[in-house]
Amino acid sequence: MKYSKLFGKTLRSVKKDIVLDSHRLLYQGGFIRELSAGRYEFLPLGLRVQQKIIDLIDKEMEKIGSQRMSIPILQPLKIWQKTNRDGVWGSSLMRLTDRNNTEFALSATGEGVVTEMVARSNPTYKDLPVTLHQFIMKFRDELRPRGGLIRVREFIMKDAYSYHTTEEDLMETYEDFHAAYTRIFDRLDLPDVYPVIADSGALGGAYSHEFQMISDAGEDKFVKCDTCDYAANVEKAVFERESVNEDQELKEYEVVELPAEVCTMKQLEEHYGLPPENYIKNVMYKAGDGTLIIATVTGNLDVNEVKLTNAVGKGPLEMADDEDLNSIGSKHGYLHSWGYDEHKDRIIYVVDLSLKKARNLYGGYKTDTTDPINVNYPRDFQADIEADIAESPEGAKCAQCKDGHLHIRKSIELGHIFKYDHFYTKAHDAKFVDKDGKNKYMWSGAYGIGIGRAMAASVEAHHDDAGIVWPAVIAPYHVHLVQLGDNAEITEYAESLYSKLREAGVEVLWDDRTDVSAGVKFADADLIGNPIRVVVSARGMDKGTVEVKKRGEQKSKDVKLDRAVEEVRKILEELLK
RNA sequence: CGGGGAGUAGUUCAGAUGGCUAGAAUGCUGCUUUUGGGAAGCAGAGGUCGCAGGUUCAAGUCCUGUCUCCCCGACCA
User: Fold this and answer.
1) Separation between the CA of A48 and the C1’ of B69 (whole angstroms)
2) Domain ranges of chain A
3) Which strand (E) or helix (H) includes residue A419?
């Protein structure tokens, strides 16, 4: 490709608004443009990278026996309603109606449609297992797109679905995907990617792993043990509660005076002179049906909403507001862990496991002037649910090895694999005929990777001050051919090298511009980030050489004109290995 | 939706207390001189100041409404 003809040029300046390197470089380098919030145009360079990521993933899918297919983007809303996914997804799911007023959802994911498609094929045990995957646009009306391609409203996803006769067989495929994903992120040269135990969220099901890449550009958090292999999303991470005052005897419950202005955890620490794990902290949430949930943890911990949601089992929760607090006669900062007896029918008390390991706590029933001390659970108050509802704090003790400590890492979620069991197949009545002639529900799983996000993650991981440093497998072109000077000899040689390289299967972006300076060309080459740069110039022609340089390296190498193709091929082979 | 910020040339921005023909840089077009890390000169093109109302002799600037975008939270690949 001649750069002079390439649609989508580099830009000299970008908005101050742009905060992530990947966003800035992809935009500045001419890979993407934004149409509206979270909806991006992929320019030729960007699309080439995307296509390479797709090809790479497709190959790995093939290796584990998945077959590529594709389903429509408009899916009858009815299919979503069978699992109440339309309700769970809420306004994240884009909907529209056709001329007959039939309601459709824009594909946000494909479980329903694919499950019904497989079921309609009338499968028997001989047809299973079957694994299908596709690369199609996903539409999700996200609350807030952000960070360029990190979080968008439409994106190509590799989504795969598998169907099985038994749970063991499903697990086998699940593990195949686990391994394939590890290979994919490895091939993409994405460093620090960890499979972490995750919550399934709106997709449903009970068991899943996310593939998280450690990065400050990420919006996710997971914890990782510094001793064993335990890694989990903070929404799921289990950790050992530290004992509080275990050497003390249970002291007698007492009510002491406490000035009203002592309210925050910090003020309590100053007032009582004890560290935060000695206090009781209460937070109130509200379920969709109006039920209020009072969640109690020790003062050093925070309630994790996802954990609490799962513990309560009443659907999505939201933070209670002042009105809700007032409705039971409480107010902000004065929520009690017990005692709302006249409202008992609409309150669920949930205590975290931390309460079980703590003795002689302070608080839990603070009034304007008093505060209880030496509070002990369950001696002094009881709860409806005892559960793990606290978010794992930095440095918490690992529950798996009981030895190491859990550290919080900011991360980008690159992929997610789900073991659904019968969640979708039951709802969609997706059965197979087993050996014994009986109809049984298939077991199923699903597996996703966001292509654009992987592209952004790659840039986050591979760039320097001058621009992107693409791994060769997904670089838009293998070689950035820089022609300096426009005399006949140079142009002729550049052109012939361009053709020869292409004949040798090398992808070349030839900067043939004659109206810009050398500095501009070098800057653009660095910005775009192709892995090999070849410079053809008067300086070289005089010596009978061209310069060859890898993007990440400082020094270039002089190569004889007639050996240039060979040299490039050699370097490329190494890079693609 | 809650909180913070912003919409002016292709791009990035400046335009205080309302005031004449709306500016710069960069990019773009033409010519000339250049050609190894974002060259120089000359000449040009390029704007419904997000949109709709309003106040005023006069609105980019003030008022009301509205839309859009960015950043921080809840949702996800």
Assistant:
1) 27
2) 3-237+408-459, 254-387, 477-576
3) strand A405-421
Band of pLDDT at residue A278, cut at 50, 70 and 90: very high
Taking a C-beta distance cutoff of 8 angstroms, is the pair A211, A416 a contact?
yes
Nucleotides of B under 7 A from a protein CB: 1-2, 5, 10-13, 25-27, 29, 34-39, 68-77
- pLDDT value of position A471: 97
DSSP string for A508-555: EEEE--SSS-HHHHHHHHHHHT-SEEEEE-HHHHHHTEEEEEETT-S-
DSSP β-ladder status, A130-139 and A67-68: parallel
Triad A83, A89, A95: Cα angle to 5°? 95
Whole-number percent of chain A with pLDDT over 90: 75
Nucleotide with minimal C1' distance from the CA of A37 is B69
Residue with CA nearest to B73's C1' atom: A144
CA A212, C1' B70: Å apart?
26
CA of A15 to C1' of B13 (A): 9
Separation of A515 CA and B30 C1' (Å)? 13
Closest C-alpha to A286, from A276, A298, A294: A294
The hierarchical CATH code for the domain A3-237+408-459 is: 3.30.930.10
> How would you classify residue A316: left for phi > 0, otherwise alpha for psi between -120 and 50, otherwise beta?
beta
pTM of the model: 0.94
